[in-house]
Design a protein that fits this description.
Elements lengths: L2 H7 L3 H8 L3 H9 L8 E2 L5 E2 L2 H15 L4 H13 L4 H41 L12
Antiparallel strand pairs: 1-2
Helix pairs in contact: 5-6
Length: 140
């Protein structure tokens, strides 16, 4: 790819914020914290310019953070990716550990949803039957 082609594909920080759902402030934070896999390019005027690869990586980061991956783990993952080939097993362990945490959270939420659904059913049944009085009334 020529320099001109790369420049044509590059995106401003505002465009990247729009595509990723991250704020401009969050993008700067990600850069400061070493969460990107490559250096952010700058124009001669010092403005950040991102590549499509940066956006793809940031979209992965957004999902990992939204699923509860700690910043330290995300930093470690980014560092492993920056190092290049040869550490794929370590990357896999990191991601698999996180997947297991997410699976446990999903299981816990499903249990919570089950209790809530049961309680909704109890209230709906009593209200439909005109028997709402006495439903968990601590004043009675």
């Amino acid at each position: 790819m020529t320099t001109a082609e790369a420049a044509a594909q590059s995106l401003s920080i505002g465009e990247v914020a729009e595509r990723t759902g991250l704020s401009v402030h969050a993008l700067r934070f990600y850069e400061r914290e070493g969460l990107l896999v490559g250096p952010v390019q700058r124009t001669s005027g010092g403005r950040r310019r991102y590549t499509p690869v940066d956006v793809d990586w940031l979209l992965i980061c957004v999902k990992l953070r939204a699923s509860g991956m700690p910043i330290a783990d995300l930093q470690h993952f980014a560092e492993l990716v920056r190092r290049g080939p040869g550490n794929e097993a370590e990357r896999l362990r990191l991601l698999d550990d996180h997947r297991q945490r997410v699976d446990a959270q999903i299981q816990a939420l499903e249990e919570c949803r089950s209790v809530i659904a049961w309680k909704v059913g109890v209230y709906a049944e009593h209200l439909a039957g005109g028997q709402a009085g006495g439903l968990w009334d601590p004043t009675a």
